[in-house]
Amino acid sequence: MKILVVNSGSSSLKFDVFELDSGSEQSLFKGLVEDIGGESPRISYKNGGKKTKPFAIEAPDHTVALDSAIKIVQENLTPDGKFVPDAIGHRVVHGGQQFKSMKVDEDIISVIEKNSELAPLHNPPNLLGIRACIELFPETPNVAVFDTAFHHSMPDVARQYALPKELTEKYEIYRYGFHGTSHRFVAHKCAEFIGRDVEKMNIITCHLGNGASLTAVKNGKSIDTTMGFTPLEGVMMGTRTGDIDPGVVFFLMEKEGLSCDEINTLLNKKSGMLGVSGISNDIRPVEEAMEKGDKSAQFAVDIYAYKIKRSIGSLAAALNGVDAIVFTAGIGENDDIVRKTVCSGMEYLGVKLDEERNAGRKGECTLISADDSKCTVVVIPTDEELAIARDTLAVLKG
Questions:
Q1: 123-136 and 62-77 helices cross at what angle (nearest 10)?
Q2: What are the pLDDT digits (tens) for 292-326?
Q3: Pick from 5, 21, 153, 353: CA 20 to 30 A from residue 45's CA?
Q4: 84 and 225 fall within a common domain
Q5: Enclosing domain of residue 133
Q6: Which of 80, 105, 147, 245 is catalytic?
Q7: Do the domain assignments include residue 186?
Q8: What is the pTM of this model?
Q9: Can you tell me the distance from the alpha carbon of 367 to that of 130, in angstroms, rounded to the nearest whole number?
Q10: Is 159 helix (H, G, I), strand (E, B) or coil?
Q11: 336 is catalytic
């Protein structure tokens, strides 16, 4: 079965075509559109042994980006340009009380729409991807795979805020957590990589990209995570504040005369790495400026790493000890500076980094802790698309 996976992020679009059959899993064609809606949108793809360098495309929004991606898939996978997938799997960030992956119908679309106000950077583009695929491939079944599903195993003490019970229940105000598909995938991959049973391990997974979250995984299940009711809670991110005193929100609304929409934009799109550094939401140019002596850039990287380190400590407490820490996603997989800064000063958890391994990491699963480190530290490339393809197949098989 050929399954197209569409993973629409806040400013990116990943797409992948898998052949899944009788236990065999093969990626036939994969690509990435970056900086959607930005100044320099670009696309790159891998077709078998052929890998392109990023090249510029028009991508003012996700609809145009997806249309371009589908055309490239069709042109490369079939001589007649008429490739039609057997099924399409979609990453959907916020599923609310939807606990598992589901075939897309009007009810599921309503669930995604309902939760769009809670994940304003993600659910709308996720839904655009679904609707575009329905239009392009009207006879092909679509499956929604929810980021929040993995975290429904969290105990109530971790899920619930200290709000009046009637408001919690009326508006379903819970800590849902996000990046669940990635956290689930890398936790299991970590255990496989180091030769242990995931159901007998305490693992902290650090998904660090433009959006970032950490999860405490105990015996293969999420028991706590840093994101909450929306993807705004947690550690500092590319454009999001992460944790903030709610009193600051009221203060700024009064002092700056901000509306609800304006404060929402400020916290979600103008803060984080972008706001602190004054340079970019992308950590790469920030680190370049840091190396040239820019103090704001240095502070932005320092505070980013500190917030992650502090969250590791709180999740370690929830787990009552840590066997392994996993770094994944764009920053987690590629930024040795962040990994080194996060892991420094964590001797109390038994973390001892091997700096040569950390700096020499080249893209595959890599052990970066020292041989005598009591806590294993690894870099695991996430593959949300493969996890989504697996879930899509499972749903269609009932």
A1: 40
A2: 999 999 999 999 999 999 999 999 999 999 999 99
A3: 21
A4: no
A5: 2-146
A6: 147
A7: no
A8: 0.87
A9: 37
A10: helix
A11: no
